[in-house]
Amino acid sequence: MKRKWIPSVFCAALLTGISLIACAVAQDDPPSPVTIETVGSARLPHTLELPGTITARRSSALSVEVDGLVAEVLVDEGDLVSEGQPMLRLRATPAQLTLDSARAELARAEAHTRLAALREQRNAELRAAQMVPEESYDVAIAELRQSEAELAGARARLALAQDRLERHLVRAPFAGVVSEKRTEAGAWVRAGEIVATLEELDTVRVRFALPQIHYAKVGNGTSVSFRSDALPAEKFTAPVTTKVRVGSSSARTFPVLVDIANPEGHLAPGMSVDVTVQLSDPLEATTHPTVSADSIVHRPDGSELIWRVAENGDATTVQPDRKAERWWH
Question: Which position has the higher pLDDT, 285 or 61?
């Protein structure tokens, strides 16, 4: 490191070419020492900045499976629910009565089957002792088979009645937040009618549009980082989950999806984010001149510059170099 004395100069930074300089003197102050440094270089990765949106990885419009009267809505908008939690209940008295009848029918079928089995066993013993004709045994066998078939039918009707009763209750298919509620108690709803919307929160999805010019440079596993105005102090990083291989013919862009765990719920569907995509690995990065941050002079009008040292024999001069702004912009 060498030092030179340069009077009547106010500067703070660096120069292109061979060296850079940092100094600070006023017009009438005595000369101050100047530190001259050599401009460096570094291989910088090729990145792309794009706008993105946080969406739910899973979003479900929940509907009822049967017609019915809403007896009770068990959640409200904004509620967090767990997987399998009841969300809405239809009036189910007729379905419950049908289930009770099916259970009684099953009990009757089971009794008939037990009785038919006993008859078959006794006829088999008497047949072995040649105390009953062959025809009596055949009848006992037929009655047993008939009772067993009736029993199977009764079990199926009971299962059907249980399923129909269960369909009067809407449950959460996964854990999430209720983003919309579309009905209230007392309303009549038909099968297939949407009654609520559920959004997953434990894992959210960042979605952004990739210009086709960069299509080949991004794939599953490509590193992506993003920030949100809602959390300015935090930076999130995750690999690309999916690059959708069908794009927009009008915009010439392709959707890219990045799933990221959100256990604390800091990220919410609907937030906007600034996405930075790593387009190439460090081995493919290009070499750029580098300067220290302290070498850049920030002017009141918002512009920036650096100072360049020029040596011609014994004379040393410094000049502002605005062209070098492209190094850091």
Answer: 61
